[in-house]
Design brief:
single chain, 348 residues, alpha+beta, elongated, binds zinc ion
Length: 348
C-alpha cells in the first residue's frame, strides 16, 4: 500500500503524490500568445521551420505554424495533437489546439490557443529572380559549323529536364534566361542562378555528346565578405553526330555511339569498327549527314553484290557488299559521295 505524502490519500502514487496532488497546478505545454508566419508576396510560399512551402489554405498554414511553436515539457510524451485554425481577418487566424500526453504513465490533456499573424516578406529565390541574379552561363556551340536547330532544341530539352531534377532539392535554382542564337555559329546560351548546377550540366552534356567543356570564372562582387563568381561553361559539340559519315585517316566511316572520351566508327569498306579518342576525332571531317543517306530498293541480291534502284533517279546499279553485310527488309541504306556509292555496313 502506498499513500500520498501531501494529502495522505491511499492508492497509486506518482513521485510520492496521489494523481490529483501530482497534477495540481502543473502545465506541460505552452504556446506564445501569437505566432508570426511569413509569406512571400511574390510567389506566395510560406516560411515554416526554415523552409519555403507552397500551401493552399491559410488555415492549414496557421495550424502548422502553431504546432511548430508549441513547447512541451520534457516530462511529457505527446500522444496526439489536434489543431483547428479559423480566420479572424485576412492577416489573423485563431488557432485552437489540444494535446494528449502521458506523464508518469498518466493520461493528461491540455488545450491551448494562439493567434497566427500573417506577415508579408520576400523569399530569397524571388529576391534573386527580381535582381536578375545569375552565376552560371552554359554556352552550347558546335565545332566548325552552325548548330542545327533540331539539335539545339534537343539539347535545350535535355537541359530543362536536368534543371527540373535539380530544382527538387534546390529551391533557389532557376533559369534567368534562354537565348537561342541567330548568329553564324548558332547554338544556345542558358543563364542559371547556380554555377554548381551549371558545371554539372555542362559535364553531363559533354558525356552525352562527346563535347569538350571550357570553364572561365570571373569575380564580380564581394558582398558581406562573400565572393560572387560568374562562371561560363563553353560546351563545344563535335561537328559530327551519330549516324553521320566522316572521313577519318583518309577513309570513310560511319559515326556510331558518342562517349565522353571516344567515338565509335565503322569503316564503310571493311566494316571494321574502331574506337577513336575524341581528341583524335578533331581531324575527322564530316562528308555526309545522316539525312543524306538514301534508302534504295533491292532489285536482286547475290552472295557478293546487291542490285539496287535509286529512289529518285530510278537508276539501277550494282553495289559490292561490305564484309558482314546483312540486309534488313527490302531496302538498303546507301551513301553517295561524288560519283561513288557505298552500301552501309550497318543497316540497323
Ligand atoms: Zn494527494
Ligand atoms: Zn518568393
Amino acid at each position: 500500500m502506498s499513500f500520498c505524502v501531501k494529502c495522505g490519500a491511499d492508492g497509486p502514487t506518482y513521485r510520492s503524490l496521489c494523481e490529483s496532488c501530482f497534477l495540481e497546478g502543473k502545465v506541460f505545454t505552452s504556446l506564445p500568445d501569437h505566432v508570426d508566419v511569413f509569406q512571400c508576396g511574390h510567389c506566395g510560399d510560406y516560411l515554416l521551420d526554415g523552409k519555403w512551402l507552397d500551401i493552399e489554405a491559410r488555415e492549414e498554414v496557421s495550424e502548422k505554424a502553431t504546432e511548430l511553436a508549441l513547447q512541451i515539457s520534457k516530462d511529457a510524451t505527446p500522444v496526439n495533437v489536434s489543431l483547428h485554425g479559423e480566420k479572424i481577418d485576412e492577416a489573423n487566424y485563431h488557432v485552437g489546439m489540444t494535446i494528449a500526453m502521458t506523464v508518469e504513465g498518466l493520461e493528461v490533456n491540455e488545450a491551448r490557443t494562439t493567434i497566427a499573424r500573417f506577415k508579408n516578406t520576400s523569399c530569397p529565390r524571388c529576391n534573386k529572380l527580381m535582381g536578375n541574379y545569375y552565376e552560371g552561363t552554359l554556352q552550347v556551340r558546335t565545332r566548325d559549323r552552325k548548330m542545327p536547330e533540331d539539335q539545339r532544341e534537343e539539347i535545350l530539352d535535355r537541359i530543362l529536364k536536368m534543371i527540373a531534377e535539380h530544382t527538387k532539392d534546390n529551391r533557389e535554382l532557376f533559369i534567368s534566361k534562354v537565348n537561342r542564337l541567330n548568329t553564324k555559329e548558332g547554338g544556345l546560351d542558358v543563364i542559371l542562378s547556380s554555377s554548381t548546377v551549371g558545371k554539372h550540366i555542362a559535364h553531363q552534356l559533354a558525356d552525352q555528346y562527346a563535347a569538350e567543356v571550357k570553364e572561365t570564372a570571373k569575380l564580380v562582387t564581394q558582398k558581406q565578405g562573400k565572393d560572387l563568381y560568374r562562371v561560363t561553361f563553353l560546351v563545344r559539340l563535335p561537328a559530327y553526330r551519330f549516324g553521320d559519315i566522316v572521313r577519318y585517316e583518309d577513309k570513310l566511316h560511319l559515326v556510331g555511339a558518342l562517349r565522353a572520351n571516344s567515338t565509335k566508327l565503322t569503316n564503310l569498306k571493311t566494316s571494321q569498327g574502331l574506337m577513336v579518342s575524341n581528341s583524335d576525332m578533331i581531324s575527322a571531317k564530316v562528308v555526309g549527314r545522316k539525312e543524306d543517306i538514301i534508302e534504295a530498293v533491292i532489285v536482286t541480291e547475290t552472295d557478293r553484290e546487291v542490285q539496287v534502284m535509286h529512289p529518285t533517279s530510278f537508276k539501277v546499279f550494282d553495289l559490292k557488299k561490305p564484309p558482314k553485310f546483312e540486309r534488313k527488309g527490302d531496302t538498303v541504306k546507301v551513301f553517295q559521295l561524288d560519283e561513288e556509292y557505298y552500301l552501309l555496313p550497318l543497316q540497323g
